[in-house]
Amino acid sequence: MLICRRISEVRELVRTERGTGKIIGFVPTMGYLHQGHLQLMREAKKDCDMVVISIFVNPAQFGPGEDLERYPRDFERDHALAAEVDVDAIFYPSVEEMYPPGFNTNVDLNSLTGCLCGKSRPGHFRGVATVVTKLFNIVLPDRAYFGQKDAQQVLVIRRMAEDLNMPVEIVTVPTVREEDGLAMSSRNVYLTPEQRRSAAVLFESLKAAEKAVEQGERDAGTILQLVRDMISSVPEAGIDYVELRNISDLNPVEVIDCPVLLALAVRFGQTRLIDNTVLEV
Ligand code: PAF
Asked: What is the residue-wise DSSP string for 51-108?
C-alpha cells in the first residue's frame, strides 16, 4: 500500500492507474478508523479497481471550542486497518499541504446547511464542502463513499457534486453499529463506561420511533416527544437536537406521510454523538 503525503504524489499515482483503464474508488476519512470506515472501503473494493483513502483531520470543519486538538489520531493503527481491507493507497497530507499560506476559497451551500448539525456547528458544512471539493479535485475519483450515519453530510455532498458538475458518483453505505446498536464513530472512544452504556439509548429511541410509525403513528410531535423522553431518561444525556425532516430538502415535517429523516445529536459529557434513521410509511 502506498502512502502519499503530497498532493502531487497522489495525483501522479491516480493518473497512472487511470491511464490503464482502472476505476478509482475514494473513501475520505479523518482517520482513527473503525468498522464503519472499513465497510466503506470494502464497498469501494467491490466496485472499483483501485481504492484510495484519505486521512486528514480537517481543521476547517471544527468550530472554536470543538474537539480539533483532542480528536483521536493514530496513523500506525489506521495504516494496519486499511491494509486489512487491501486499500491501494492512503493520501495523508499535512494541514500545510491542504491549506497553504494564502488559502482563501470556500465552498458554501445556500441551503441544507443551516439546520440540524449545521445549526449547532456553524461553519461545519462549509469546512466539509471545501475539503471534500479539494479532495475530489486532487484524487479525481470515479466513485466516493460516505456513511449514512452522517445523513446531512451525504445530502450536502450529493447536492454540491451535482451543482458543481463534479464527475464523481456519490455512494452511500448503511451505518455500521456496535452490538447494542450504537453507531460506530471515532468519537465513541471519548465516552466513559457509564456514558457508553447510556449511549445505547440513541439506537433504542430510533427503533422505538420506527415501531410507533409501523403501528400507525403519523404525528411528528408525538414521535419527537417519544424519542426525547427516552433519551432524557438515561444518565448524562443532553439533547442537542431531535428532529424530523424531509429527506431531500431537510425542511421540517409535521406529519409523516412520506419517508422522513429522524435525526438526532446528543451530548454525553463533552462528547456529541449523532445518529438517524429514515422512517418509512
Ligand atoms: O465524514 C468525515 O469523516 C469528514 O467529514 C470528511 C468527509 C472526511 C471530510 O473531512
From this structure: EEEEE---GGG--TTSSTTTS---HHHHHHHHHHTT-SEEE---HHHHS-TT------
